[in-house]
Structures are given as structure tokens and as C-alpha cells.
Amino acid sequence: xxxxxxxxxxxxHWLELEGIEGDFRGALSSSLVxxxxxxxxxxxxxxxxxxxxxxxxxxxxKALLEGRVQACREDLEEIQERLTEEIAxxxxxxxxxxxxxxxxxxxxxELAFLEKWQAxxxxxxxxxx
Length: 129
Hints:
The protein is mainly alpha-helical.
């Protein structure tokens, strides 16, 4: 995949080309911390369920987990939709950043986290198949 296909990489690259001072590392907004506090427990539940499913010794044991697996898949789909919306909102702010409004480095940091979490959702979803 082309590195610049990710919004966080595109923004970071643009900020560097424009010579806009800032740091890619740093604090996150309270809204992003809040998002993680919502999805973190669901990630943990998915990880636990994936391990439990892998440890199931029989097809019957795996079949008995299917209700929980389906509910977990639905949770992951909801998380993916939420993350997609959050990314779209931050990408929409690119025009403002280009005009010198807002903190482009904060947006780039947050996009990087959101993109990472999206990849983690995809990994967990694949682990539930």
C-alpha cells in the first residue's frame, strides 16, 4: 500500500512540506481518549473470545460460542463505522488546516491512532471467522 494513501500520512507529509512546526508525538484530545475508552473493552472482549474459540477442542464447543461470536462481530462492525466517521470528520478539516486554522499536527496524530484502530478491528474481525 502506498504510504500516502493514509490520511494521516498525507497530512503529515503536507505539514512537513509546508514547514509547519509541530510534533507528530504528543497528547491526544479528550474526544479521542473517550473513543478509546469505549472501544478498548470491546477489543479485549474480542481478543478473549478469539482465544477461547481457538482453544475449543470440538466443533460442538465452537458451535456453542457462535452466539457470542456473532454479537462480537456486530460490535466490531459498529466500531468500524464509528472510526470511519471520525476519520472522515478529521479529513474534512484539511481545508481549514491548509488555511492555517486548527492544529494540523494534532489532527495527524489522531488520524494515525484512528487508522491503527481500524486495522486492529479488521484483524479481530478476521480472527472471528
